[in-house]
Amino acid sequence: MPDFWATAIKNNQMMMQYVREKDQDTLQYITNVTASESDSPPSTTITISFRENEYFTNDKLSLTVEFKDAQREEVVKTTGTPIDWKDGKDLTTKKIKKKQKNKKTGETR
Question: What is the reported pLDDT for 48?
Answer without folding.
Answer: 96
